[in-house]
Amino acid sequence: MNNEHSDFIIxxxxxxxxxxxxxxxxxxxxxxxxxxxxxxxxxxxxxxKRLVISNVPKTKLDQMTDHQNHQGVALAVAAYQYATIDDxxxxxxxxxxxxxFLILDELEDPHNLGSIIRTADxxxxxxxxxxxxxxxxxxxxxxxxxxxxxxxxxxxRVTNLVQTAKELQDRGxxxxxxxxxxxDYRQWDAHGAVALVIGNEGKGISSLLKKTCDExxxxxxxxxxxxxxxxxxxGLLIYxxxxxxxxxxx
Length: 250
Hints:
The protein has nine helices and twelve strands. It has two domains: 8-77, CATH 3.30.1330.30; 85-245, Alpha/beta knot (3-Layer(aba) Sandwich), CATH 3.40.1280.10. The longest helix has 16 residues, at 230-245. By secondary structure, the protein is α/β, with parallel strands linked by helices.
């Protein structure tokens, strides 16, 4: 796994999830005077790990977290750990399932990325692939929006998405892109090794990556607004993948 920049994990639930995981944490910041069961659990977990706990005024936490809703808690974490492509395949193998991956093409909004990671965890996605450039990485906003799911879904960060897509194909993975013209996503059968490609919020999937895809899927719309938020569209497609892989039984 590869290390990236240091950051903060903020919010009570994400903090608890991080403290229960193997993630390396440097220091715990708690808002002075706060008392609750959640805060008590965070302090208990931090003490069990023999971490330094610092009680600081709310103004200090506001400054550290860029005035986000920190709920009185911030963990200074060592670099987020990005997975490798091999890690993603190993995750699927551990679960005895064919790989189900997401490729996110230059997603820019950390809230969208966090929401997609949360949905991916819920639907059993084995890993997510993001580009190193022109895209949001694993920031504290992403971690908070994922509400702890980031601890369970490996994320690989690669230099070239097209090359990575071809590598996946060489390893038996079928690539499904999203486009205005394509097969109705409700007909998508995601059995076997698959990767779902989600495009940028405004531009969609880049032309080279689109050409690499084996098949395109579309979400039919009959309303006046002919586009969906990236995380909402991803959620629909991810759960169609889940539905076909885990069909209802009588």
